[in-house]
C-alpha cells in the first residue's frame, strides 16, 4: 500500500477501501466525456477488479481525484477513469496522481496504454507518446529503473 503526501497537504493513497465509490460513480457517469451514463454497479465492479486504484485526497480528507489501472500484471497496464475535480486543478495534482499510478508500485516497468481525447500535455510529461489517430497513447516499458 502506498500513501504519499503532496504539497498543500494533499495525499495520494492506493487503498481501495478508502475510495468513495459513490462519488467516483457520480463524477464519472455525469461529468466525464468517456463514461456518461455508466451504471453504479459497473463502476463498482471496475473499481473492485482493478489491478490498482489511486485516490487523491484534499487536506480535509475528501476525495478530489481518482484513477484506476487494468493489467495482466506482466506485460501491460491500462490507465482509466483519471480525474481531478475542477476546483482542485492547476496545482500539478493530476501529474502526481498519474505519476503515482504509472511510476510507483508493482506495475511501474510495464507498457502503459490509455485512451484520451484531451490532457495530452499531462501524459506527455510522463513519457507517453503522441496519440495515434484513435487517441491511443502509449508509454514504453522502463528498463532498469526501480519503482520510486
Architecture overview:
This protein has helices spanning 21-31, 40-48, 93-103, 120-125, and strands at residues 3-6, 10-13, 52-57, 63-71, 76-84, 111-115, 136-139. The chain has 148 residues and is α+β, with helices and mostly antiparallel strands. It has one domain: Gcn5-related N-acetyltransferase (GNAT) (Aminopeptidase), CATH 3.40.630.30. The radius of gyration is 14 Å and the shape is globular.
Report strand order across the widest sheet.
Answer: 1-2-3-4-5-6-7
Distance between the termini: 13 Å
The name of the CATH superfamily reads: Gcn5-related N-acetyltransferase (GNAT)
Helical percentage: 25-40%
CATH class division:
Alpha Beta
Per CATH, what is the topology? Aminopeptidase
- Summed up, the helix count is 4
Strand content: 25-35%
Order of helices and strands: EEHHEEEHEHE
**Tally of strands:** 7
Strand and helix map with partners:
Elements: E1 3-6, E2 10-13, H1 21-31, H2 40-48, E3 52-57, E4 63-71, E5 76-84, H3 93-103, E6 111-115, H4 120-125, E7 136-139
Parallel strand pairs: 5-6
Antiparallel strand pairs: 1-2, 2-3, 3-4, 4-5, 6-7
Helix pairs in contact: 1-2
Please name the defining characteristics of this protein:
148 residues, single chain, alpha+beta
Would you summarize the structure shown here?
The chain is of the alpha+beta class and 148 residues long. The chain has a single domain, classed as Gcn5-related N-acetyltransferase (GNAT) (Aminopeptidase, 3-Layer(aba) Sandwich), CATH 3.40.630.30.
Amino acid at each position: 500500500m502506498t500513501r504519499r503526501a503532496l504539497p498543500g497537504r494533499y495525499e495520494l493513497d492506493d487503498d481501495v477501501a478508502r475510495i468513495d465509490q459513490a462519488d467516483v460513480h457520480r463524477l464519472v457517469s455525469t461529468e466525464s466525456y468517456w463514461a456518461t451514463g455508466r451504471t453504479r454497479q459497473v463502476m463498482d465492479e471496475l473499481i473492485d477488479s482493478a489491478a490498482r486504484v489511486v485516490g487523491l485526497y484534499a487536506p480535509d480528507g475528501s476525495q478530489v481525484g481518482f484513477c484506476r489501472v487494468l493489467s495482466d500484471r506482466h506485460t501491460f497496464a491500462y490507465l482509466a477513469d483519471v480525474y481531478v475535480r475542477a476546483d482542485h486543478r492547476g496545482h500539478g495534482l493530476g501529474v502526481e496522481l498519474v505519476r503515482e499510478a504509472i511510476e510507483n508500485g508493482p506495475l511501474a516497468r510495464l507498457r502503459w496504454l490509455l485512451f484520451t481525447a484531451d490532457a495530452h500535455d499531462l501524459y506527455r510529461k510522463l513519457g507517453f507518446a503522441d496519440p495515434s489517430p484513435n487517441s491511443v497513447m502509449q508509454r514504453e516499458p522502463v528498463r532498469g529503473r526501480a519503482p520510486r
